[in-house]
Write a structure and sequence with these properties.
- The chain is α+β, with helices and mostly antiparallel strands.
- The protein folds into three domains: 186 residues, no CATH class; 341 residues, no CATH class; 246 residues.
- Strands 6, 7, 8, 9, 10, 11, 12, 13, 16, 17, 18, 19 and 20 form a 13-stranded mixed sheet that branches.
- Strand 12 and strand 13 form a beta hairpin.
- Helix 13 crosses helix 14 and helix 16 crosses helix 17.
- About 16% of the residues have low confidence.
- One of its GO terms (cellular component) is endoplasmic reticulum.
- Pfam families: hSac2, Syja_N.
- InterPro entries: hSac2, Inositol_phosphatase, SAC_dom.
- GO terms for molecular function: phosphatidylinositol-4-phosphate phosphatase activity.
């Protein structure tokens, strides 16, 4: 395959960034560098003469690869790898984890130069230790580059560093505030910003290279006092800089600094992204052979399912700069070596000798390469092996716990991870065999959700049975085509809150098996982990091995002998619990150890006869794998990790799990919302509009859920259910926003409803989007409609998007209620107090509603007019999925089209005298003006949103 740029020199030119690929020797340079133009994502080749002087120490920095470009509004940032750490060697190829990245702005020469200088300064302050780069040691306290750091530059608080007293000073107790500010960690940075004299936003401005407003005003005032021509020019330049700062602050809804910081943490500090220059890390051993091609670029070989920076690196691929397209994978890669003996010494050799031999001959180095290790003389009967664990997280339905649950329409599930365990000799030769054992995990493949605002949230099933079955069938069809036979291992509780989802899962699999032939059936094993291991007896997971041991042996392993595949794994275990983290990792590690013993036995080594029966090297490796996957999905390490490492469980591990539960609870409520939006943005699932939407409600959308398709289905279902008179001609249906309380206009919250129009009546249908059912509807005869008011409809003033009068429009239908104008409530709705009818139970015909409310009372006085208020959905959506572009009309055009159609039918429904014109129904005017909305927005509501924004964003 074509070689990748293993090292890249990044420097700033007057009209762009220049990327200079380097070989292993600094003096060997390719003839054609690549230039990145400022202000766009275009890339073009330039001549060597155009390259700036790379000899200047502050004009460039060295990177180990390019992750890609991120584009927000008018701003582009190059994400490059500035630090890496080798964690394994697979088939002779080194595997690295990204430990630090640099974000270099591509918008202006000044910003790029400053960012590059900051990156160079950071590298000089914290030089790369070669022993660290190529070993398992980590520098946890490395300060991030200043270009996107957390520094606030306050005189009283240093950036993330503990304030030390002067030499000879007397130690004294510090205040709580001083302790919080001085210590490292997110809470320390939070307090540092909060109590800083410069204010909360100062660090964000400086991280973006923005000008401080007070500083700029003071300079402008001083310049005005001087009155000189030079001062006026300087003042103008500062004013322009201030305008640019304002434009940057508006980018990404004012959240651009947080986006950059989150991107840097995600790709760098999290240490969850792995890459190799000449090895396809995204494919298992069996698939490596199938796609082996020497003439194909690495980015074309990798599995798109695990290609995490495909979207950000695409501009380089489109420009033909494939040498910079370095695929990265999120997940885990860990490796350790161990020694086994085909003829182990007898136990009676002496306890002391046994311990010495154990200490000397058992080498535990998880997450470290097998090279450069201490040389140990081996007996003729001994052999050293490397065990490598590779976990690959899917880009499909990627994200965080409680924000990505269950399945989507295409059959992709949340937290989908393929884990491969590779056994290979440390010193391979022509007769060496390599073993590969695959397992997969993934969320329960049904539509469900859980609220992040509870320690033990109740799962809520969503959508119809047919929708669930269709998605589940797609999921298992895809898995069987890729892996062969499947064995489901369901670890959720058979009783309690989890049972609801487990029962639905089992029922749908039974239906799937009933409609499949024997070769396509999916065996389902429900092992109630909590019940079987009650009382911290996690060793009872061996019961699961007793049940499925023969099944695992039958699936076998993939074996490579002399660079040829001699055997292939015929199936995989698909393990899941609710989160597919803690219980799943314990079970998967047990299956992996079971297969490792069988593989070593085939090599002539009986693990039951070895001196080291604890196998701490294996347990630690799998515990590290569990922690990594858990941090990426739940933001904390895995629970039950003490058992995975020691095969023992006590009260200390239980207390640790309590702390992890509380941390997950906090992250689920606060941190995960913005991080989820960032992940979706970097994967290309959403556009930069997602940050404006986030600023409005501090929530994120699920880009895998096609709202366009769901709305079309809701309109179709409402039409079938509520239009009972076959004589009525259906004209059209729309989804709009409406207050949850009938006959109300001003409301802080709106819900999405379905509006149906026939030639006889209007129908306002309130739809249960979780269960795909009509919960209630209101019918109004067209002849009773008196007027339709169209205009500005603002319901909140808490964000810029919500106060935009151009995009916040709606209409109000005013009508005089009559005998045939009714409101009906579905008897199957939780809000209904009426009993179910027989026809409801049978499910036949149009839906039978109870609770008919006549609008006109039997009285002489005319009834008061009623109103139905509707607000248009936003025309622009952040969803970037193909085929889900949302409404093509603007908000005003949507409202105008709906109201003109209603007006036409209303005029036709009312009698007129010959020669007279039909009266107009539509009138223009503000429904809720911006001024009215501001008056109705209380101080507590504004304060609550400000606090939430401060914490969430």
């Amino acid at each position: 395959m074509p070689s990748l740029a293993r090292k890249v020199i990044i420097c700033a030119a007057v009209d762009g960034l220049v990327l200079q690929p380097l070989s292993s020797k600094r003096d060997q340079r390719p003839p054609s560098p690549v230039k990145l133009r400022y202000g766009d994502a275009g890339i073009s080749h330039v001549s060597r003469e155009a390259t700036p002087d790379l000899a200047k120490p502050d004009s460039s920095f060295e990177a180990f690869g390019i992750i890609g470009l991120i584009n927000v509004s008018k701003f582009n940032y190059l994400v490059s790898i500035t630090r890496r750490q080798q964690v394994a060697t697979i088939r002779g190829s080194p595997i690295y984890v990204v430990t630090e990245v640099a974000l270099t702005p591509c918008t202006s020469y000044k910003d790029a130069s400053e960012a590059i200088a900051n990156t160079v300064l950071h590298a000089q302050r914290h030089p790369i230790d070669k022993s660290v780069e190529n070993s398992d040691s980590e520098n946890e306290d490395v300060e991030l580059p200043l270009a996107v750091s957390d520094e606030v530059g306050d005189d009283d608080a240093s950036s993330g560093e503990e304030v030390k007293p002067p030499a000879g000073a007397t130690a004294r107790k510090s205040s709580v505030a001083q302790d919080v500010i001085s210590k490292r960690g997110s809470y320390g940075r939070f307090a540092q910003r909060w109590f800083s004299k410069s204010g909360w936003m100062q660090d964000q401005k400086r991280s973006m290279g923005l000008t401080d407003r007070a500083e700029a005003e003071a300079a402008a005032k001083a310049a005005a006092e001087k009155g000189s021509k030079e001062a006026m020019v300087e003042e103008t330049e500062r004013a322009q800089a201030l305008a640019e700062d304002t434009e940057r602050a508006r980018a990404a809804g004012g959240l651009l600094p947080k986006l950059l910081r989150t991107t840097q943490i995600l790709f760098g500090s999290s240490k969850s992204f792995f890459f190799a220059y000449d090895y396809d890390l995204t494919r298992s051993l069996a698939q490596q052979q199938a796609v082996n091609a020497t003439d194909t670029a690495l980015h074309e070989l990798v599995d798109p399912m695990y290609f995490w920076n495909r979207h950000t690196i695409q501009p380089f691929i489109d420009a033909g700069a494939s040498q910079f397209a370095l695929p990265t994978m999120q997940g885990f890669v860990g490796q350790c070596s161990f020694i086994v003996d085909s003829q182990p010494p007898q136990v009676d050799d002496g306890a002391q000798e046994s311990m010495e031999m154990k200490d000397m001959r058992t080498e535990s180095t998880p997450a470290s390469p097998p090279t450069e290790r201490a040389s140990i003389d081996l007996r003729p009967s001994e052999k050293r092996f490397d065990i490598t664990v590779v976990s690959r997280r899917s880009v499909k339905r990627a994200g965080l716990r409680y924000h990505r649950r269950g399945i989507d329409d295409e059959g992709f599930v949340a937290n989908s991870v393929e884990t491969e365990q590779i056994l290979s000799p440390s010193k391979p030769d022509d007769t060496s065999k390599i073993y590969s054992f695959l397992q997969i995990r993934g969320s329960i493949p049904v539509f469900f959700k859980q609220s992040p605002y509870s320690l033990k949230p109740v799962p809520i099933l969503q959508h119809s049975e047919e929708a669930n079955y269709s998605a589940l069938k797609k999921h298992f069809d895809r898995a069987r085509d890729k892996y062969g036979s499947l064995q489901i291992v369901n670890l959720v509780e058979k009783h309690g809150t989890e049972a609801k989802v487990g029962d639905e899962f089992e029922r749908l699999v039974q239906r799937l098996n009933g409609e499949s032939d024997d070769s396509r059936k999916v065996p389902f094993e429900w092992f109630d982990f909590h019940n079987a291991c009650r009382g911290m007896k996690f060793e009872n997971v061996s019961l699961l091995l007793d049940i499925l041991g023969e099944k695992v042996v039958g699936m076998g392993s993939t074996i490579e002998d002399g660079n040829k595949i001699t055997a292939r794994q015929t199936g995989v275990l698909r393990t899941n619990c609710m989160d597919c983290l803690d219980r799943t990792n314990v079970s998967q590690s047990s299956f992996a150890k079971y297969m490792l013993d069988l593989q070593l036995k085939a090599e002539g080594f009986d693990m039951a006869a070895q001196r080291d029966q604890e196998n701490s090297w294996f347990n630690n490796l799998w515990a590290d794998n569990g922690d990594a996957i858990s941090k990426q999905y739940a933001s904390t390490g895995a629970m039950k990790g003490d058992y995975t490492r020691t095969r023992k469980r006590d009260y200390r591990g239980a207390l640790t799990d309590v702390g992890l539960s509380l941390t997950r609870f906090y992250n689920g409520m606060v941190n995960d919302f913005f991080l989820q939006a960032t992940i979706d943005f970097l994967l290309g699932n959403v556009t930069a509009l997602v940050f404006e939407e986030f600023e409005s409600n501090m929530m994120t959308k699920d880009p895998a859920v096609s709202m366009l398709r769901m709305r079309e289905q809701a309109i179709e279902l409402c039409q079938k259910r509520v239009v009972a008179d076959e004589a009525e001609e259906f004209i059209g249906g729309w989804t709009l926003l409406s207050p949850p309380v009938p006959d109300t206009i001003a409301s802080q919250t709106l819900e999405e409803v379905v509006l149906l129009l026939t030639d006889a009546a209007l129908y306002l249908c309130r739809f249960d989007w979780n269960s795909d059912k009509v919960s209630s509807f209101e019918r109004v005869e067209l002849c009773h409609v008196e007027k339709i008011k169209v205009g500005t409809y603002i319901t909140s003033t808490l964000s810029r998007a919500q106060i935009d009068e151009e995009h916040n429009v709606g209409f109000v239908v005013t009508y005089c209620p009559g005998f045939r104008d009714i409101m009906r409530v579905n008897t199957r709705s939780l809000s209904s107090l009426a009993s179910k009818s027989k026809k409801d139970e049978e499910g036949g015909g149009p839906l039978n509603f109870s609770g008919i409310l006549n609008r006109r009372q039997q009285q002489s006085a005319p009834p008061p007019d009623k109103k139905m208020a509707f607000k248009a959905l936003y025309a622009q959506s952040s969803i970037a999925a193909v085929g889900d572009t949302g409404p093509k009309l603007s908000e005003s055009q949507q409202v105008a089209a709906i109201c003109s159609e209603i007006e036409r039918l209303v005029q036709l429904s009312k009698p007129t005298f010959a020669g007279t014109e039909r009266p107009a129904v539509i009138e223009k005017g503000e429904i809720v003006s911006l001024a009215e909305a501001r008056k109705s927005t209380g101080i507590l509501e504004q304060l609550g949103h400000s606090i939430k924004k401060l914490v969430w964003a």
